[in-house]
Automatic annotation (TrEMBL):
One cellular-component annotation, GO: cytosol
Stated name of the protein: Pyrimidine-nucleoside phosphorylase
Keyword Glycosyltransferase: yes
The reaction(s) this protein catalyses: thymidine + phosphate = 2-deoxy-alpha-D-ribose 1-phosphate + thymine; uridine + phosphate = alpha-D-ribose 1-phosphate + uracil; 2'-deoxyuridine + phosphate = 2-deoxy-alpha-D-ribose 1-phosphate + uracil
Matches recorded under PROSITE patterns: THYMID_PHOSPHORYLASE
Annotated EC: 2.4.2.2
Function: Catalyzes phosphorolysis of the pyrimidine nucleosides uridine, thymidine and 2'-deoxyuridine with the formation of the corresponding pyrimidine base and ribose-1-phosphate.
Subunit structure: Homodimer.
PANTHER family: THYMIDINE PHOSPHORYLASE
Keyword Transferase among record annotations: yes
Species of origin: Aceticella autotrophica
Family the UniProt entry places it in: Belongs to the thymidine/pyrimidine-nucleoside phosphorylase family.
Amino acid sequence: MRMYDLIMKKRDGGILSKEEINFIISSYTKDYLPDYQMSALLMAIYFNGMSPGETADLTMAMAYSGEIMDLSNIKGIKVDKHSTGGVADTTTLVLAPLVAACGVPVAKMSGRGLGHTGGTIDKLESIPGMRVELSKEEFINNINKYGIAVMGQSGNIAPADKKIYALRDVTATVDSIPLIASSIMSKKIAAGADGIVLDVKVGRGAFMKDLDSAKKLSNLMVDIGNLVGKKTIAHITNMDQPLGLAIGNSLEVAEAIEVLKGHGSKDLLEVCMTLGIDMLKVAGIVKNDDKAKEMLNNALKSGIALKKFKEFIKAQGGDERVVDDITLLPQAKFVEEWTADKEVYIKDLPAFELGLIAMKLGAGRERKEDVIDLSVGIMLGGKTGDVIKKGYPIATVYANNKGRLDWAIENLKRCIVLSDEFVERPSLIYT
């Protein structure tokens, strides 16, 4: 088999066989193929696409390029959740203890953030003492004992995807739906879950900018999951504006705690409830939405989900006292509110711009080697359609540098749009 022939086949619109895809992925992972040949193939895929079968074969080849997590020692059906990324997306911190409190084991491997999207692992590291690097034995034992564990993604999970993504990033082939779908699903399959619930974000703060593209990606990932024997469900949710009110690592942990106490962002809770319903159904705990919703509500209102979050923190070495005292989380040196000088409605909260402002404050990474400032970020006073009364904050900035704080306030005033007239709240969940 020659890579030259396979590039030409894809260039001319042909369908690559399972054997050919396995050859390509195995050879590239082992450094037998040069980057320029793999780049040529990626560009051919970018222009000609891939069939669902090809995409499924590519997904499995990348999943099996490294370690497949064996979670068979964990009791029950393991259901993973994945979000395609956005701003103030704190769903894992709320959803994992909520679902675990209902009796579904949550075995989650998460990543760090790059750019304007925050990583779950970075957020968890805001909690003093919290360990995210766990051995496999500790990971499995914690899930069997407490029903929940979250760890950083192993370096040997889908190594082919890591290599290929780095190449896509510098060859303008990132935004190919088959390549996005296979990248996401290869990692989810390698992580060992029995079922997968997907949250596909669409809008200015998401990778997918329009609903049609988000639907294509969503449908393809569901097809891949089901083709390889993983029960898979997807939802498409709005990322034109941030999901929660908090943008920044320790701020988002504090917001997750508030939501688990029955307060905080209603939008964040709504998305968590929607995803949680499907996680309970995929796990076989319930058969219908109403019963699943009832179980999740009971776990929330009874305080069992909050207790589960405490157990999870303590089990991984964290200081569980943060649940009762959020001042134990990293605190910024400077805090300044931008307050309304009259009653106004929030008309627009551009997610991407707000994410970039938070990143420039230090809450995110421009490069992989950047060190995140866990204490900084932005707290919004409301969401699009909300009214802000005179003297109340439109947004609050948390910073450790006065110059950056002043810059952030100035830029927030430029990008957040206000109105004297009523503004309708946008849709949150599309499908």
